[in-house]
Amino acid sequence: MAVRGRAAQLDYKVVGEGPPLLLVMGMSGTYDHWDERFVGELARHRRVILYDHRGVGRSAPLEGPFTIADLAGDALGLVERLGLERVDLLGFSMGGMIAQEVAINDPQRVGRLVLAATFAGGRNSLPTPRETAERLGGALQSGNRELALRTAWELNISAARLADEELWQRFLAIGRRRVVPLAVIQRQLEAILRFDAYDRLPEISAPTLVIHGTEDRMLPVGNGEILAGRIPGARLAKLEGVGHLFFWEEPQRSAQLVLDHLRKGGG
After folding, report:
1. Each residue of 140-156: pLDDT tens digit?
2. Is residue 149 part of a domain?
3. What is the predicted pLDDT for the residue at 1?
4. Nearest Cα to 28, choosing from 131, 154, 137, 181?
5. Partners of 202 in the beta sheet?
6. Residue 258: its pLDDT value, please?
7. CA 231, CA 96: separation in Å to the nearest integer?
8. 145: in domain
9. 33 is an active site residue
10. Average confidence score pLDDT of the chain
11. DSSP string, 228-258
12. Which domain holds residue 87?
């Protein structure tokens, strides 16, 4: 059955020209959190569509709990409002869960699929490590915005890039400018905890590339292996020594992986 329902009005922007590629951001992120170098590389060849989830920025305000399927309905609603029959789809982290829902329930809408630093949910997936969850949860609940941003940065980036002050300052500036309310983050987390697509993964028919950093401390790299093993014909690209925000650490390489897959199914 197609993912439908009450799709929220979403704030979006479009960069570049070419076949449409929809980017779906993860938990607590905004469309500005897509690294500009990564988007710039993609936009040389694609019409890249970025948007904010419900409750974020100028998108529709939060109205109670929602599910990952509801967020998939939001994404499809945006595709329809843009008058697009079919898009290629790249989902990152929570966005990868949304992308799975779209690909399973509305396969005719998806050309090629990229699942990045994400998981299938449920008991058959590898959860966020306890230490990571406790550190991040404590920082978010502290009420100290600067502490929350720094903690998120340290948990989302590899140890090798922690000393990169230029990257950190750009991440910090976005976090200060684009504040996602804690209530929205909590609702997103609740939706993630209820999500489970493991048994449905073999239904995905779109040619799929799975990208995962080996130093991902948010969602362990084993989740990429699970996804690639369950989705028919899927390819897995492991980025050695790279953390959760792989497109910040390796923007050109990540964009090339994506573009190769969109052009010819390469991984």
Report:
1. 999 999 999 999 999 99
2. no
3. 32
4. 181
5. none
6. 98
7. 13
8. no
9. no
10. 95
11. HHHSTT-EEEEETT--S-HHHHSHHHHHHHH
12. 12-128+180-264
Task: Please indicate whether residue 267 or residue 52 has the higher confidence score (pLDDT).
Answer: 52
168 burial via Cβ count (<10 Å: 0-12, 13-18, 19+): middle
69/23 Cα distance (integer angstroms): 17
How distant, in Å, are the alpha carbons of 78, 109, 256, 261 from that of 233?
28, 19, 20, 13
Question: Which pLDDT does position 12 carry in this prediction?
Answer: 98
pLDDT, one tens digit per residue, over 181-224 is: 999 999 999 999 999 999 999 999 999 999 999 999 999 999 99
Nearest 5°: phi and psi at 121? 75, 180
Residues 6+ apart with CB under 8 A from 81: none
Q: What dihedral angle (degrees, nearest 10) is formed by the CA atoms of 261, 38, 159, 142?
A: -120
**Residue at 155 is within a domain:** no
Marked catalytic residue, from 33, 53, 212, 244:
244
Structural domain count of the chain: 1
| Beta-bridge partners for 211 | 116, 237
Report whether 114 contacts 100 (CB < 8 A).
no
Residues 6+ apart with CB under 8 A from 197: 97, 100, 101, 104, 120, 121, 122
Q: How far apart are CA 118 and CA 25, in angstroms?
A: 11
Residue 170 maps to a domain: no
- CATH number of the domain residue 23 falls in: 3.40.50.1820
Residue 233, judged by CB atoms within 10 A of its CB (0-12, 13-18, 19+), counts as: exposed
